[in-house]
Amino acid sequence: MADSIDVTRHRLLTDSADDFARQQDTSKAIAYHKRALAHARLHKLPEHEARSLTRIAILLKGQDSSESLNYLDSAREIALRLNRADLLADIMKARSAVYKQQQNYGDALAALEAHQELLKTVFESNRRKEEARQRAVEQNKDDRLIFIMISTSLVLLFLVFALYHRKLSRLNRSLLKSNRIKDTLFSIIGHDLRGPAGNIMQALDVLGLDLLDDAEEKEVITLLKEQSWSFNETLNTLLNWATAQLKGAEPQVATVNAMSAIQRSLDLLRAQAIAKNIEISAPAGNPVAVLADIDQLDFVVRNLISNAIKFSYPGGRIQISAEKQDHNGLIAVHDDGKGIPAEKQAELFSEGQLNSTYGTKGEKGTGLGLMLSWDFIRANHGRIWCDSREGAGTTFYISLPLAM
Fold first, then answer.
1. What is the model's pTM?
2. Residue 351: how many CB atoms within 10 A of its CB?
3. Is residue 279 domain-shared with residue 382, that is, in the same domain?
4. Can you tell me where the transmembrane regions are (predicted)?
């Protein structure tokens, strides 16, 4: 119990420091991280000590890069003593940033490559552990469908990592862009895929014990379906994003009927809307032919409608329209849901601003879909924006060139 309290105290100090850092108050952020560091040392929490040292080093890199490296050296000694590759990976990432601040690009690249190798080690270790857990689940419960789904997902995750790593080796002159792609990818894997995957495994463990009555087993199966849907939705978006980032393919522009794109998305998402008793209105008007990549437009429309369902209250209403406006086609997706706070609207389409959000029934989102939608629409010479008031609903707009 004492250890738990000490760890919680350290986390609260670290969270306060992170809040000050987001407010650009570096001095207070450093002060709170140093308090967290002292707390970790006092209560013999070496992992948390190493993390505090690393966070202080990151904040110091613009003020005193030499001192920043000293902090990282201390953190590295702890990580080596603990034999923690994940800690070493974070430390090498921070070291790369410090070297870059010093314009020492050779050492920056070397540190980044070491960071990538450590991430591979962590990934492989986690993969082996996951495979061992899968074998245990298979022995306890012969649920082949879920087992295949998780195994396939792991293979796909490994392919995403392999594609990313191969591309990274070719981007020595684009260190900043490489950092952005890496941070986004592993943030989603670490926070938004690991959670649903862990919940699936826990539910399977419970099923394997054969201790549940029919009602309880049905409840667990419902949980498995929800978590599997969340896992699959995040994975599909992640794969679309990774493909766009790593392949850099040009859109295959063709004439597309906007109402047909809307209807295709509705066909896929209708069950999701019915589950929340949400009415969707999409009156069929005159065809609105726009110039766009059909797959990319389908993804964007599907993402906007899915978000509208996610953030609408049960029994709500969604209105979708497509019309001609000057030389452009305008698609609008309106919901009467929870709305978006004004301070969050400016960050919706910003790179590096991914934050987990939750729908009206706890559905989790990453923001990656909107960021990818912005990339796709921009690549198709269009615009995407929103109009929202907190508590009064949201309307997303897509404007694309009309086909002449």
1. 0.48
2. 12
3. yes
4. 145-164
